[in-house]
Amino acid sequence: MALNQLFFRKTIIAATGLFLCIFLVVHLSANCILLLPEETARSLYNSYSTTLRESPLIKIVAYLLYLSIILHVVFALLITIANRKAKPQKYVMNSSRENSTWTSQNMGLIGTMILLFIVVHLANFWARIKLGMGDAVGLDAAGNVDVYEVTSSLFHNIYYVIFYTVLAIPLALHLHHGFKSAFKTLGFYHKKGLRIVAKIALVYAIVMGVGFGIIPFIVYSK
Amino acid sequence: MKVTFKIWRQEGPDDKGAIRAYEVDGLTEDMSFLEALDHLNELLVLKDEKVIAFEYDCREGICGQCGVFINGRAHGPHDNMTTCQLHMRSFKDGDTIVVEPWRAASFPVIKDLIVDRSAFDRIIEQGAFISSKTGTAPEANAIPIPKEVSDRAMDAAACIGCGACVATCKNSSAALFTSAKINHLNGLPQGRAEEHKRVAEMTYQMEIEGFGSCTFTGACEVECPEGISIINIAEMNARVTKSKVFG
Ligand code: HEM
Ligand code: SF4
Ligand code: FES
Fold first, then answer.
1. Could you tell me the distance, in angstroms and rounded to a whole number, from the CA of residue B83 to the centre of ligand 3?
2. Strand, coil or helix: what is B203?
């Protein structure tokens, strides 16, 4: 039997999506270090970041992460195109608000906003720290690359603070629908279990949205 | 009661089609929605105009023929209801009611509000049956089936093939329909012998027919007149994986 694209594509999106969801938890937890008092935050954040950069295991995880984002985006694009083709003529009147959420109807659009965020975010950090583009990054007192300074200087620019905060909204929306959807895509069909998944998805989306959205503001006001 | 119908008119598959407005007076709240369309058609006959083509059979909510999109919802403003069970009392005097055919690449318009749903038949042909001769009905307790298993199979079997799930889905996914058919048979001992083949072939046919993939918007289970639960789709997904591993 030939490969069933309808399922294969969704399975890739769901599996990579859930992997990214786990990554976000780790990422947000680490970012909480930024909330500590200035000097503690600087030394902790920089030593944490150095440990990560030097670990071979993290290297593998990082490549998995890049691969996941690429696969997620590529397959999301493929299903969005295929799904549009399946409904070439739109309704003159469509009251989809009465049977489904706006988020679930617009995952492609919301995902594109997140993609925009990821590109800017990588340019802000990854390109500067890993690729050495832009202003050189200094060392802190302990001799670690001063990633804290990169963060802190970025978030003293109010435009970046607003950008990061506003784009936490599509992230939260995407995660709320995506988290629930991924379980069903992967074949979890326990009725009560799915109700619990829906509750976890809501809490998860709020924590991620508020967490990523508010940290730039706190760093700004420090 | 007086309403303005805005109805999709299309001569045939190749005609472009357009919305046309009809002011209709003399309706009562007790009329079913289809009776209101009958009434409009009688007026059109008197005016020597072409009647509006729409489908129906049983008019009692069991055949699944009467699907049309009404004011942006499959089968009209209520959840879980067929068009023939909708009554004019659900609208107000002076309302404008927009009526369109199901929209999906796999459901091409034949005329006006009638679409070709034979893509569903071709999915059914792939395995929504049991190939062994069953003879006359066996003794009821010959094959013991736990109550919850039979309940789930019967819930899935309630699907009347109306196509509202495809019509309302932004991806025109046939996942709710196909999952109902698959889970109905695969859940029961009689269907087990062919379970993997059935899942693989029926789901593959969905793709061949050009239906989209399910992204769990949940619109289908709200519009489905039989209240088929979307959890059926998750179960079908599990069965697809199982068929890949064991099939
Ligand atoms: C931090 C990054 C991201 C995470 C954690 C994430 C997570 C998820 C999850 C868990 C799903 C559910 C899979 C399923 O429905 O089974 C999903 C679906 C999807 N994602 Fe993402 N995603 C991310 C970024 C993106 C980006 C950048 C795009 C687009 C360019 C995107 C587009 C989509 C689309 C189109 C879907 C399928 C939509 C649907 O089910 O209706 N995502 N995502
Ligand atoms: S699953 Fe529901 S909406 Fe879809 S065809 Fe069957 S009865 Fe109609
Ligand atoms: S006419 Fe048979 S279900 Fe409506």
1. 7
2. helix
